[in-house]
Amino acid sequence: MNRNLFLKEIKRNTLSLAVWMVVITLFITVTMAVYPVFLANQSKIIGMMSLIPSGVLQFKGISNFTDFLSALGFYAVNNIIYMMVLGSIYAIVLSSGILLKEEYNRTAEYLLTRPLTRSEIFLSKLAVLFINIFLLNLVTSLAGFVCLELFKNAPFSIKAFLILSLYTLLLNMLFGAVGLFMSTLVKRARPITTMSIGLVLILYFIFTLSKITESIAKIGYLSPFRYVNTDVTNPAFSINFWHLSYFIGISLVLTVISYRLYIRKDIYT
Amino acid sequence: MNPPVIDITNLSKFYGKVRGIEHVDLEIGEGEIFGFIGPNGAGKSTTIRILMNMIFPTSGSARIMGMDVIRETKKIKNQTGYIPSDAGTYSSMDVYEFLSYCIRFYRVQNGEKRIADLSELFELDLKRKITDLSMGNRKKVSIVQSLLHSPRLLILDEPTTGLDPLMQSNFFELLLSENRKGMTIFFSSHILGEVQRLCKRVAIIKEGRIIQVENIETLRKKQLKKVYIEFAGRPGKEDFNISGIEGVAGGSGNMISFMYSGDLNALVGLLSRYTIINLMIEEPSLDEIFMHYYKL
């Protein structure tokens, strides 16, 4: 890893990281601020929700009304789209551009002519990617934790909260690895941001559709969102070893393949 | 004996089925200023990109200062400077930030002074954002970044694009001065005048193949002559359809001109059949020599 390149990349991505942190934190805060209102009117709201077809509720990620009654359940159901989908979009946009940006901005001719090996370039950028995704998750999870503490009506399981946060981090890391892999496959220098965001959204919709339509339930296994457990109100809620292996395994394999491809890639500007 | 600074052996690069370069051989010695001439698409940038390990060769090998351009690229780049033809910019940086970022990759003593000295020479405003600079000023930044670490080898890809004549002149003076201190310069260009002004030796590349490596002066003197003849009567162009004569063009009146490569006695023998009013044989310009090789 090269310290100079690492620090430059950290600085280059600071503003974007800060913006994403603020946006996701605001979404979480606003959503959680509704929780006391919901509690105060829970009988009316549950009455209204019972009129909504179960398929629609499942599409929203609500499988059980009792999920809503606890602060952590409310947090898990309502914040998944911000922390998991937006976090994954951040991760894939950052990772798909972190190497490729040097090509389509035509700065690769400066970077690749410095005394650096391709390995050093890759590892420096990978470290920046990892740290940025980790920091985003740390800050947004802390924001979630503070909101839960502020708005809870009863103690909640810290362990369940940490497991949910870990799943979010692993999912974001996986999309980070996917973006990196996609960028190393691109032959000609051009941004792949739209394609990356599209991939996250498509995989999210595949997951939600597979939940409401039994006939296509199996397609849901194609989506990484399927392997995230948000059932925090279940007393048996824990980390699933196979799901953990899935996230770590795929992320590692894609990162190693990306590394192998990048160190032999023809870089055009 | 020192190995050649650049040693390219049977180097080829194909982009799929499309030819980049084919069987390129080049050897450039320590302290040379070597010109690399060819039009766009001839393979100049491909060759340079392989040397700088931006792209990988399909076959063959290249060494710089005795080191393999793929395996030992880091060591090579510690001693090599590079000026791209038209690179992009880090939009968030000002000139000083960019140059500081560049110099930190090397172990340069008095780096701040080096930045200040070179920027002064090229009249660069260090506080300006690079994105706000004109093309010429961006080129100056590119030149300065390549010289920050006082490299042993400087590789230039069309380096004068965007520079005004005065700055070009300063730049060439600087190159000659650095060369006198021992720097080897590999100068790629399609502008023959600047190659002629700077380089001692030149390689001409055509459709991915090196077609000639020659001293500039030898190239100029190598039997290739520009011949102008004024005849008493107008001879047919077909009379000059013989080996060694090419580019026959009719001028005003009974004038004919052509390029001739070969034994001058044979040409005089041919001309003795005609009544000649005026005969002028001169050295061709480098452009004409270049075009001659391109027609071969």
Please name the defining characteristics of this protein.
heterodimer, A: 269 residues, mainly alpha, elongated, B: 296 residues, alpha/beta, Rossmann fold, Alpha-Beta Plaits, 2 domains, 6-stranded mixed β-sheet, 4-stranded antiparallel β-sheet, 10 helices, 14 strands
Give a written overview of the molecule.
The complex is a heterodimer of chains A (about 270) and B (about 300). With about 270 residues, chain A is mostly helical. Chain A is built from twelve helices and no strands. Chain A has one domain (about 5-265). Chain A starts with a helix and ends in a 6-residue tail after the last helix. The mean pLDDT of chain A is about 90. By secondary structure, chain B is of the alpha/beta class. Chain B contains ten helices and 14 strands. In chain B, strands 6-7-8-3-9-10 form a six-stranded mixed beta sheet, sandwiched between helices. A four-stranded antiparallel beta sheet of chain B has the order 2-1-4-5. A four-stranded antiparallel beta sheet of chain B has the order 12-13-11-14. Chain B is elongated, with a radius of gyration of 23 Å. Chains A and B meet through helix 1 and helix 8 of A and helix 2 of B.
Give a short summary of the structure.
Chain A is mainly alpha-helical and 269 residues long. Chain A contains 12 helices and no strands.
Q: Which stretches of chain A are poorly predicted, pLDDT < 50 over at least 5 residues?
A: none
Shape of chain A: elongated
Helix and strand content put the structural class of chain B at: alpha/beta
* Biggest interface, CB < 8 A: A-B, 23 and 26 residues
Structural class of chain A: mainly alpha
Order of helices and strands of chain A: HHHHHHHHHHHH
Query: How many strand segments of chain A?
Result: 0
What strand order characterises the main sheet of chain B? Answer: 6-7-8-3-9-10
Q: What is the beta-strand fraction of chain A?
A: under 5%
Strand content of chain B: 25-35%
In CATH, the architecture of the largest domain in chain B is 3-Layer(aba) Sandwich
